[in-house]
């Protein structure tokens, strides 16, 4: 069933070409014009063909009887071939992504160069071992006996999934592709308008290794405008899809929720906010202040503060003079070129600028460092500001004690960077009770222990369809 999207007709005006990859086949016709959300750049895709995209349930998943070790070997080989200097698909995707994505070219290139790391064997093995108490359930039926002597077997059966990919990290699709393969899923990747290119580049690399490989035949990457009922009211049905893994903003998640019901589940990586917590030890002397400011800037500028794990609020206890010295140094360090951040980000949004200008006029408890030019701003206050800082803007909240910061933590708090590091042990149980999902050393928000949970869950065990065969 072909579906014509209610978008602009294709004209001869220049637009970026974005291809589809459907169950091992590259689709290149230019049929539908779209516009990227962030930069307003037009791109042209093929028309959606749901008959081609959806595999009927009478067909067993292509990866069902492929061993996980074999899948890992194939992913590792894919990672080795993602080298930007030698992979023409990644090179082409880079040139196109920089036209639609707000991240600067240098940052996108760094992300591409880091993509092979996501497909290293130790990374993939850690994911499996941490998610499944008995990974053998992925490869077949595992017998079990209960306390009464009843016997049965379970299997982690491959799911039929839609992955709504995030648009703030062009290489993030590599992780989703790996996860979809490890659970042996039948995967549809909905590409974001800010990057309708990278996923197809990775899948084309896989197809060059073996076009008939079950991993390749289990993967599709397409684009449609989020919320388009002509697509979603047909696709988002339990006869076609088991799970929707959604990375995205609130409206995207709310839209998916409309379609949920028996047999169709949502695994939501919904919007999060990250913070930093600084003990009074942070302001002991100028050298410590400078070091803490640098570590804070490292966390706050990740993806130019577009990532969920980028710190936006800093809760600082200690002497006011030391905190102000820290704020001045932090503002200076925000304007530094980093691997995942540019010295100058997009300017502060106009609505937020008006809020900050109002605070400056109020004076008193509010002090502001920096300008509205994208180089970074720091706002010092006694109470948390009411708006959501962005554009490399950090709100430093002066508190009497870190105990006073705990009430600001909730279920939307993803990562908390802590200094001094020893304070983590003191506070982590209370932070978890408040809803936080991760506490790390300040400056290491982007570093992870292999195989750890994400957003307070082990997602792979939620992706699979747990099937039980019981003899009672």
UniProtKB/TrEMBL annotation:
GO terms for biological process: bioluminescence. The keyword Plastid does not apply. GO terms for molecular function: acyl-CoA dehydrogenase activity; long-chain-fatty-acyl-CoA reductase activity. Pfam families: LuxC. InterPro entries: Ald_DH/histidinol_DH, CoA_reduct_LuxC. SUPFAM superfamilies: ALDH-like. Keywords: NADP, Oxidoreductase. Its EC number is 1.2.1.50. The keyword NADP applies. It catalyses: a long-chain fatty aldehyde + NADP(+) + CoA = a long-chain fatty acyl-CoA + NADPH + H(+). Belongs to the LuxC family. This is Acyl-CoA reductase.
